[in-house]
Amino acid sequence: MRYLNKISLLSISTAFAFLACESEKSPFDVSPNDSFDPKRSEQPYPQIAIPEGVDLESPTWKGIDLSPKPPVIPVSANEEKKSFVLKPGYSIDPVLSEPQIKEPAAIQFDGNGRMYVLELRTYMQDIDANGELMPTSRISRWEDKDNDGVYETGVVFLDSLVFPRFIVPFGPNTILSMESNEDHVYKFTDTDGDGKADKKELFASGLGRSGNVEHQTSFLTWAMDNWMYSTYNSKRIRWTADGVIQEPSGNPWGQWGVTQDNYGKLWFQDGAGGVPQGFQFPIAYGNFSVKGQWREGFRTPYSLVKLADFQPGMKEVNPDGSLNNVTGAAGSDVYRGDRLPKELVGQYFYGEPVGRIVRQVNTENEEGLTYIQNAYIESQSEFIQSTDPLFRPVDMATAPDGTMYIVDMYRGIIQEGNWTQDGSYLRTKIQQYQMDDVIGNGRIWRLTYEGMPRNTEKPRMYEETSAELIRHLENPNGWWRDQAQQLMILNQDKSIVPDLEKMAKTSSNELARIHAIWTLEGLNSLDLELVRALFKDANPKIRIAALRASETLYKYGEKSLAEDYKQMALDKDPNVAIQSLFSAFILKIDGVEELMASTMKSNPSKGVELVGTQILEKIAEAKEAASTKFEPAELALFTKGKTIFDSYCSTCHGPKGLGSPAGDGQLIAPAFSGSQRIQGHPEYAVKTLLHGLTGNLEGKEYEGVMIAMDMNDDDYIASVLSYIRNDFGNSASFVSPEYVAQIREETKDREGNYSFEELTSEVPKSLAPQDNWVVTASSTALQGVGSTKDPSYAFGFKGWKTETEQESGMWFQVELPDAHQLAEIQFNSGKDDFPISYTVSTSPNGNNWTEVGSGKGESGVNNLRWKSDDRVRFIRIQAKEKGGKPWAMKNLVLFAR
Predict the structure, then answer these.
(1) What is the three-class DSSP state of 358?
(2) From which residue to which does the signal peptide run (predicted)?
């Protein structure tokens, strides 16, 4: 394990205090305060200087108190417990804390009830965010083996991470996660049972973002509809037995927190905005604006901490120093357990770590629209309040034991370094209370209610068969239902289909029926006759679930459902009618605009009118945008390619690019949606169309055979490939007729179809950057707050840039641990910072170099290919000319054959 981050005196002394404590003493009694100078509170408090150039009459600063203040002192978990103000009957207790964990930011439970903790150990370790992207964060896993309610047994499942973004349990001893400034989600597995991941596999690409760590993808979440959603991404991804697919969705507007209710409706937690987002309708259908969805007064927090340490400054400070407007929020949970009062079930909870509160949200549905309010607005209170300034609730979750867990980062600074820079209001307040010294802590709390003890049954889902998992769909705790559904889908055991169909039809448990419907959908075993029977069910929630799940059948070719959607739009329940409009819209059925207009006439409810009106607006906007999305030449290829695909390719590959069913859960041909093969190097797809492809693909057999299409001209092949690489949720470069002609010439002597193994051995593959690559450069600039001069940033969104204007001879070099037959590079230099001209050289040993290619730089993506049979370990890109701007590269990709 590597430890490269700043280790605070606080963390060290806390650890020693824990190790030295007597056996009968609870670790939660150990105080982080022990690490501070015992005379600190007796020493003169620091004078706070007014930053240069500050206007004390501005709204941000007017009225600020800059007098010396005693420092904020951290206390033990059991001491912090006394600071909470809870509603009658509730109790809160720590289940895990420092020194075992540090800087916890999120938790997830796997199918055996083990708790994974995302530890962001580099987050704001000083006021300037130094070292924030050092590889010293981790994901740990914890168990309560003696079942006393405390998680005493832990292991570092995944170490040396760069500010990881989420945890998704994904079957036995496996999780999904992604690091900051990266575009790839990886699957990590512990194959030898020692509790530590030792296998890393690419799971999906295209989900990352660059920039400030608060503004990147987070909380990838497997939802009830079997798709995975995250913050920031206007797309959703899905695991299938044939690979990971993706589709576009609305913009979730979330920042740190994704959760769902008992019916699969998603909630996204906005950070700086301080309010929930995306809760009106499923985000898969896009964004819809509902005026007044946050009731009046919702943005007012009721905080008991009065330090005025809020990033917006004095304009958001009450006269007593407390917060007057939500300014930060993190973590969220729709409580779906069974060991807290029933009135909490289905309620949304989230943390406001700036206000040091946990809020409970009441929801009301009026004519198909949702409105939310603080559950305690009348008493001007919150569900949980604390008087401890270090209480930082950043995540919460319904636990396997039926209670609610709350993740408390317990630290001084909760805002990222962009908001604590020199001269800022927030920096001044942090230094006034010396809060930048309080780091390296963290607690996880369990919330309970008197007379309702936690469930002590330990989950053992990984030892259960799919047939045994079915019973959990009737569990009153939504966590058990979700995990069982996910595992049955990962198992892909079709023998349970009859039992699931029976549950969907006849169970007296409404939620079990809905989970059974979605489990059948995830097993590709949802029957059209069953769906149509459920359309007539007396329960509108069942009708809605059947409508949503039926969309998959339509995508795989059951076009007759279009008439069902039109009929269901006449449903008297506005929520059902709205769902039918969504289904018709997202599937682009014939006559969808007429359906919107007629439904609004026949159903006067506010929800139907709003949805119908805004869908018509979206359709009109889409028509206008279609003509401007691509350059004219690209649009011509895309349009022609769509016509070809709809006429010929869709028969085997499905009208929505998901593959056409061949029976027994098999497909005639592989899906295109989200396919890394299709979106990867274009040589793969061009050679496939020119010469055909037979045999299995990555171990999967398909009924159909891809025949050679070389009788068609270069424009034909370029068009269809450009289309499939840029529809069905895909986003990749266009394929030009000239490129097709080049590959056709290079392979003109080929006879017969390719096998998958033969084809992939020829096509350049992108090399995934690894920690053991040695990346150096002649010049490297700092790239943002808290960063280091690290040229390896060139492989991510953050990017690499020279410290000065580019000069002839400047170089960027990569040393690989193993030799490869390198064939191509690709990088993005943005609008202006491209190399004027450059060469690429390779070497087997770092001493003997061979120039393999040269190119002229240009705005945006740059690409250079060469032919060489040499296997090399070193590659160097070198500038040839002087330029007036720095040379920059991001998303650098090395391709090897």
Answers:
(1) strand
(2) 1-17
Main-chain dihedrals φ then ψ at residue 649, nearest 5 degrees: -70, -30
Each residue's pLDDT tens digit, 690-726: 998 887 787 777 766 788 888 889 998 999 899 889 8
Enter the DSSP assignment of 470. Answer: G
Pairing of strands 693-694, 754-755: parallel
Q: What's the pLDDT at 626?
A: 67
pLDDT tens-digit readout, 563-618 = 999 999 999 999 999 999 999 999 999 999 999 999 999 999 999 999 999 999 99
Distance (Å, whole) CA 763 – CA 685: 10
CB 294 within 8 A of CB 370: no
The CATH homologous superfamily of the domain defined by 637-763: Cytochrome c-like domain (1.10.760.10)
pLDDT class for 3, splitting at 50, 70, 90? very low
| Side-chain half-sphere exposure of 751, counting CA atoms within 13 A | 0
Question: CA separation (Å) from 671 to 336, 667, 865?
Answer: 35, 8, 29
Bridge partners of 348, per DSSP, are: 334, 361
d(CA 779, CA 802): 5
Instruction: Give dist(CA 460, CA 457) in Å, integer.
Output: 9
Return all residues near 742 (Cβ < 8 A) that are at least 6 apart.
Answer: none
Question: For residue 869, what are the CA distances in angstroms to 280, 762, 838, 844, 866?
Answer: 57, 12, 22, 12, 10
CATH number of 774-896: 2.60.120.260
CA–CA gap between residue 124 and residue 440 (Å, rounded): 10
pTM of the complete model = 0.81
- Contact between 54 and 61 (Cβ < 8 Å): yes
Quick count: other Cβ atoms within 10 Å of Cβ 172? 16
Q: How far is CA 680 from CA 206, 234, 686, 725, 746, in A?
A: 11, 20, 11, 9, 20
* Structure confidence at residue 440 (pLDDT): 96
Terminal Cα-to-Cα distance of the chain (whole angstroms): 33
**At residue 476, does pLDDT exceed 80?**
yes
What is the per-residue burial (b if ≥16 Cβ within 10 Å, else e) of 602-639?
Answer: ebebebbbbbbebbbebeeeeeeeeeeebeeeebebbe
> Could you tell me which residue, 744 or 9, shows the higher pLDDT?
744
Using the Cα atoms of residue 156, residue 157, residue 158 and residue 163 in order, give the sign of their dihedral: negative
Per-residue pLDDT band for 524 (boundaries 50, 70, 90) equals very high
> Could you state, in order of their start, the residue ranges of all structural domains in the chain?
9-132+267-449, 460-523, 526-626, 637-763, 774-896
8 A C-beta contact, residue 328 and residue 271: yes
Query: What share of the chain has pLDDT > 90, as a percent?
Result: 68
CA distance 513 to 685: 42
How many Cα neighbours within 13 Å face the side chain of 550? 28
For the segment 794-812, the average pLDDT, to the nearest whole number, is 91
CB 589 within 8 A of CB 379: no
Amino acid residing at 38: P
| Both tokens assigned to 181 | 């400034």
**What is the C-alpha to C-alpha distance for residues 165 and 178, in angstroms, rounded to an integer?**
6
Q: Is the peptide bond before 844 cis (omega within 30 degrees of 0)?
A: no
Checking if the pLDDT of 392 tops 70, the result is: yes
- Residues 840/875, Cβ–Cβ less than 8 Å: yes
- Which tens digit of pLDDT belongs to each residue from 826-836? 898 888 899 99
**Calpha distance 342→218 (Å, rounded):** 30
Q: Residues 728, 730, 734, 737: what is their CA dihedral angle, to the nearest 10 degrees?
A: -50
Instruction: Tell how strand 221-222 and strand 168-169 pair up.
Output: unpaired
Return d(Cα 258, Cα 335) in angstroms, integer.
Answer: 13
Q: What is the rounded average pLDDT of the residues 846-868?
A: 90
Q: Report how far residue 106's alpha carbon sits from residue 116's, in angstroms, rounded to the nearest whole number.
A: 8
Query: Torsions phi, psi of 424, nearest 5?
Result: -85, 155
